[in-house]
Each structure stands twice: as structure tokens, then as C-alpha cells.
Design a protein that fits this description.
This protein is an alpha/beta fold. The chain is 40% helix and 15% strand. It contains 11 helices and 13 strands. Strand 2, helix 2 and strand 3 form a beta-alpha-beta unit. Helix 1 packs parallel to helix 2. The protein is globular and about 65 Å long. 44% of the residues are buried.
Length: 355
């Protein structure tokens, strides 16, 4: 008789959430419960249904509407799970100074508290994966050019007023660590800190408004290159492929050596936006393809003429120490970021967002 392990994934319709669920369903012994805010908003989780169909796993994917700020609802959805991946969080990299940062931080803390209590009380949960952010480790504002950032570092600019999202993530990281220690919790945990994620979304995007988080931010950079022939001389954050981040989440479920660890997920060094979009432009112009959408974009760039890098000279790109990542999750390694970037651009082209 087949024994199934149930994995609860909060924030199932997020950019990363969809990729994690895709990889979880590849394992025929996994049942996945994905939590959503509104189960009637079927457009948002259409991609998850397409994933389940692709994996012939419709019976192993459940979509449940859960208010993660409601302790009872969280306990009910987690009570028989073997594993929990807590992704759900408001994604706000910067905030208007007039906005109350507590509206960002308080829900993050409350939902994490509820997930921790439910894991403790379930009697079934073996491990919690908490998804934090590379923004808890370094700051693009005040990083040290000579330092290679690692899991011992904390972002000095992650204050409630300046970067409430990163501040909230730091608070939740420490909440996970303290809760586990103080409650002698019967489950293990891993904290994962991915940097700026790129790579194709799962599911289609009818317009720019359908793009999620970092894919939307990157789209603005590529769009400026296409429409104006310009790229900003500003250092990028750390970069990593969303598919690799999803893979690390899935591997962390069964990697005992990762228990209790905080793990940075990033390629070893960043770049600058102008260099990146310049390489994209060159790749499209040099492409030998019969794809009509790519040819239209190529023609548009040819008519545009030269490319201009604008802005002040940036600091040297940030460096990251990925020793722990490579030790805990050595195979198959991370994708080359240039391949990831072009896969992201191909997604924009396929969805006619650059034409």
C-alpha cells in the first residue's frame, strides 16, 4: 500500500509557490495542499490546475481557502500534514513613507506565529520550511564591496520604517528560531533566504499586471531597453533562478543536515542592470530564429539603433558566499544566470509583453 506524505504550501499562487508545487507533484508519493486567500478567484490558481494536469496529479493537489491570520483555520489545514512550507507574505520591497509599516509587518508575524503553533500542536508535522529573503542578509544601500555576504550577516537597513518587508522577515526568522527552542518543538525547521528571483512564471500572463513580484520588476528594466534603448548603471541585487529556489525548498524537506540552518540561495555575484539588458539586446539581435514574435522584437531593436547606459557609475556588484548552499544541496547546482535571464525574456516574448 502506497504511503503519501502531505505537504502544506502557504502562498500557493505566488511566483515561487507555483514552482514548488510543480516540483512536489513530480513525486507521486506527495499530496499537496496549497492555501489561497480566495478560492473563487480561479484565475490566480489556474496555473496550479494546469500543473496538476501536466503531472497527472489532480487527485494529489488540494486548493484551500485559508485566512492565515486565523489561528483555528491554520490549525485545521495543517493538522494532518507531514511538512509545511510557509511562503505566504505580502511582497513589498519598498514602501511609501506615508504607509503604516505595521500593516506589512504585523500580518507577517501573526501568520508565522499561527503556522508555528499549528506545526507544534499537529503531532504530525516533521519539518517546517520558512521562506525568508536575501534582503535580510544584505542591503543594496550600504553593502560592503569587499565583503562576501553569508548567513551570519543581517541587513543593517532592515528597519521597520525603511524596509518593513525585510524587517518583518528578520523578525519572523528569529521567531521561528526562538519558538523552536523555547517550546522544545517536535518538528525540525530550515530557513531559506533566496535573493532576487528570475525565470519564467508558470501559467500565462495576459498583461503586465499579471506578472508577479521580481518578474514584474525585471520586466520594467527590459521594457525600458526595448522602448528607449537604455539601461541603468545600477548594481543588481543577488540573482537566482526561481526553479532552483523551488528545488532547494523540496530538497530541504528531506535533508537532515539542513535542520536548524539558515541558508542563503543565490549565485555568487551580482551584476549591473545596464550590462544585463545589453546582453539581452545583443542575444536577440544575434539570434537565428523563425519564431515570429522574436523576429518582430528583433526588427524593433534593429530600428532602434544604439544602446545607452545611463546614470552614475555603480559600486562593484555584491558578492555572496554560497559555501553552505553548495555543501547542503550540491546537485545539480544552480543555473547560469544568463540562461535564467533569457528564459525570463522568452516568457515575456511568448506572452506578447514586449511587442
Amino acid at each position: 500500500m502506497t504511503t503519501f506524505s502531505t505537504v502544506v504550501v502557504t502562498g500557493a499562487t505566488s511566483y515561487l509557490g507555483a514552482h514548488i508545487i510543480d516540483q512536489l507533484l513530480y513525486d507521486v508519493n506527495k499530496v499537496v495542499i496549497g492555501t489561497v486567500r480566495d478560492e473563487n478567484d480561479k484565475f490566480k490558481y489556474k496555473a496550479l490546475e494546469e500543473i496538476a494536469e501536466k503531472r497527472t496529479a489532480k487527485e494529489r493537489l488540494q486548493i484551500k481557502q485559508v485566512d492565515l491570520e486565523n489561528e483555528v483555520e491554520v490549525a485545521n489545514v495543517i493538522k494532518n500534514a507531514s511538512y509545511v512550507i510557509h511562503l505566504a507574505s505580502p511582497v513589498v520591497f519598498h514602501t511609501d513613507k506615508t504607509e503604516d509599516p505595521n500593516k506589512i509587518v504585523d500580518p507577517m508575524v501573526k501568520t508565522t506565529e499561527n503556522v508555528l503553533k499549528a506545526c507544534r500542536d499537529s503531532g504530525s508535522v516533521k519539518k517546517l520550511i520558512y521562506t525568508s529573503s536575501g534582503g535580510t542578509i544584505y542591503s543594496p544601500k550600504s553593502y560592503d564591496e569587499d565583503h562576501s555576504y553569508n548567513e551570519k550577516d543581517y541587513n543593517p537597513d532592515a528597519t521597520k520604517d525603511q524596509y518593513p518587508y525585510y524587517y518583518g522577515k528578520v523578525v519572523c526568522e528569529k521567531l521561528v528560531q526562538d519558538f523552536h527552542k523555547e517550546n522544545n518543538a517536535p518538528f525540525d525547521y530550515v530557513i531559506l533566504c533566496p535573493t532576487f528571483m528570475l525565470g519564467p512564471m508558470l501559467g500565462s500572463a495576459m498583461s503586465e499586471s499579471d506578472l508577479r513580484s521580481s518578474v514584474k520588476q525585471f520586466y520594467a528594466k527590459v521594457k525600458t531597453m526595448v522602448q528607449e534603448g537604455k539601461g541603468e548603471k545600477r548594481t543588481t541585487p543577488g540573482l537566482v533562478d526561481v526553479r532552483d529556489v523551488a528545488r532547494v525548498h523540496v530538497l530541504a524537506l528531506c535533508t537532515e543536515e539542513a535542520n536548524g540552518e539558515r541558508v542563503l540561495i543565490s549565485t555568487p555575484s551580482a551584476s549591473t542592470w545596464d550590462q544585463m539588458v545589453s546582453r539581452i539586446r545583443a542575444s536577440i539581435l544575434q539570434s537565428d530564429t523563425d519564431d515570429k514574435k522574436t523576429l518582430l522584437l528583433k526588427e524593433k531593436l534593429e530600428k532602434q539603433g544604439t544602446f545607452e547606459a545611463v546614470g552614475d557609475e555603480p559600486k562593484r556588484p555584491t558578492k555572496f558566499d554560497t559555501t553552505k548552499l553548495q555543501r547542503l544541496f550540491p546537485e545539480p547546482g544552480l543555473r547560469k544566470i544568463d540562461d535564467t535571464v533569457m528564459d525570463t525574456v522568452k516568457y515575456y516574448i511568448e506572452n506578447e509583453l514586449l511587442l
